[in-house]
């Protein structure tokens, strides 16, 4: 399967160079795929550098005590990341993937510097606005590029590797940042990691990453409709408005994935702002809090190496349903606990539930969306999913202020259980095994 490489280069080459063949598949594109995995690890590391530190910084250096106020930086991050996801999908379909990836990394450059120098909490919120743009543009683009490269057969595995790299880096960097904060103080040491990540990512993305839009064009040319006729209305010529409607509300699998993604990240957003404060009520050391926080994305990240590939074998729907139910149970364990042991068990279980869901939902979008508008469908899905950061932060902050930290976790558990029911009732199996 080949096609002329008129769109696959980095924006041009010598006119005398023969076109390189374009092939779909993980093995056929192993070098570029591995490079994009490394880039996405750096994307995740940008979040990990601050997750353990910022809630403690809010209380220790800025004197913020209201949970809703502290969570403003998570809400700002979630809203801007959600909006950036849509632009990432639209611009990558229109202009190519690589320019969007590079633009996303440029938005990251001021973030560590602002966090190091911040004289007040407003600077932290502003830095997280820029971080949200960075995450939306870069993470969405690496997702779309990997889907482009591997084609339809190994989509779940590809998403598992992508998300494992990103959230594995969140876990590792959270752990390192917690150690640095405990040894050298909350600033500037933990945020120096971010400066290193940005420099390395700009080098890799600018010099070595190649455009992948031609791979999507190749797949579109080979696209065949489902035998059951389910997707006959999802043809190549949908408008942006129609893509929004199908992904958000009308198409059962796409819209079920969008709501499950929102609830999944509601849990992550709530944990980001609330878990360090909850764990601190037991007088745990900063290093212990960092370890507890790292367990969640750590199990999540490693687990996706298994669950993404598993969805290619057993299908998508049952993994999503089981994953959302597991998250509900995990949050109940965390809410009912008040010690390191209980919280460790709950965060490990929460990571396992998230691992079942996260790469599988992206694979669902890739299964259903036509290659001609797949980038925009991924963008819409990620808009809804990443709004969960803001919803989780605001909901968690309000409930924590009114009823306490444990009550906020119980609320998230109930919402996760309801999401599992919606998926079980509405989503159909999307993987054509």
UniProtKB/TrEMBL annotation:
Subcellular location: Cell membrane
MF GO annotations: transmembrane transporter activity
CC per GO annotation: plasma membrane
Region Disordered, residue ranges: 1-20
Matching PROSITE patterns: MFS (PS50850), SUGAR_TRANSPORT_1 (PS00216)
Pfam family for this entry, one: MFS_1
Keyword Mitochondrion: no
Membrane topology of the entry: Multi-pass membrane protein
Keywords: Cell membrane, Membrane, Transmembrane, Transmembrane helix, Transport
Transmembrane segments annotated in the record for this chain: 30-47, 67-88, 100-117, 123-144, 164-182, 188-209, 285-307, 343-366, 387-403, 409-428
Occurrences of domain Major facilitator superfamily (MFS) profile (ranges): 33-431
PANTHER family with a match to the protein in the record: INTEGRAL MEMBRANE TRANSPORT PROTEIN, RESISTANCE PROTEIN MDTM, PUTATIVE-RELATED-RELATED
Name of the featured protein: Predicted arabinose efflux permease, MFS family
Organism whose genome encodes this protein: Blastococcus aggregatus
């Amino acid at each position: 399967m080949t096609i002329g490489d008129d769109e696959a280069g980095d924006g041009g080459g010598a006119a005398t160079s023969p076109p390189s063949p374009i092939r779909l598949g993980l093995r056929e594109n192993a070098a570029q795929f591995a490079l994009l995995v490394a880039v996405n690890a750096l994307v995740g590391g940008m979040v990990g550098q601050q997750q353990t530190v910022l809630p403690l910084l809010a209380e220790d250096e800025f004197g913020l005590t209201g949970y809703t106020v502290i969570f403003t930086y998570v809400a700002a991050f979630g809203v801007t990341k959600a909006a950036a996801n849509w632009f990432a999908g639209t611009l990558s379909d229109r202009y190519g993937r690589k320019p969007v990836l590079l633009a996303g990394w440029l938005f990251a450059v001021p973030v560590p510097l602002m966090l190091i120098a911040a004289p007040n909490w407003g600077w932290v919120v502003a830095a997280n606005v820029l971080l949200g743009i960075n995450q939306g543009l870069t993470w969405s683009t690496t997702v779309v590029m990997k889907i482009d490269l591997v084609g339809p057969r190994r989509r779940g595995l590809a998403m598992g590797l992508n998300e494992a790299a990103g959230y594995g880096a969140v876990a590792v960097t959270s752990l390192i940042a917690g150690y640095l904060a405990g040894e050298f103080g909350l600033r500037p040491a933990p945020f120096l990691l971010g400066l290193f990540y940005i420099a390395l990512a700009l080098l890799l993305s600018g010099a070595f990453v190649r455009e992948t839009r031609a791979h999507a064009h190749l797949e579109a040319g080979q696209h065949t409709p489902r035998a059951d006729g389910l997707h006959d209305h999802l043809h190549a010529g949908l408008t942006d408005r129609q893509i929004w409607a199908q992904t958000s509300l009308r198409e059962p699998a796409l819209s079920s994935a969008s709501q499950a993604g929102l609830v999944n990240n509601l849990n992550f957003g709530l944990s980001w702002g609330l878990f360090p404060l909850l764990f601190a009520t037991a007088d745990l050391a900063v290093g212990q809090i960092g370890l507890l926080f790292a367990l969640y994305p750590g199990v999540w990240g490693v687990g996706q190496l298994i669950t993404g590939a598993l969805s290619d074998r057993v299908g998508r729907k049952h993994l999503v349903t089981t994953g959302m139910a597991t998250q509900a149970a995990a949050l109940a364990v965390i809410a009912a606990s008040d010690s390191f042991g209980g919280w460790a068990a709950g965060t490990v279980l929460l990571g396992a539930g998230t691992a079942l869901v996260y790469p599988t939902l992206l694979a669902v979008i890739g299964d259903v969306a036509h290659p001609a508008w797949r980038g925009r469908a991924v963008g819409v899905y990620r808009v809804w999913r990443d709004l969960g950061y803001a919803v989780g932060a605001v909901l968690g902050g309000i409930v924590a202020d009114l009823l306490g930290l444990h009550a906020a976790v119980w609320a998230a558990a109930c919402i996760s259980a309801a999401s599992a029911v919606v998926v079980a009732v509405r989503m159909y199996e999307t993987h054509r095994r």
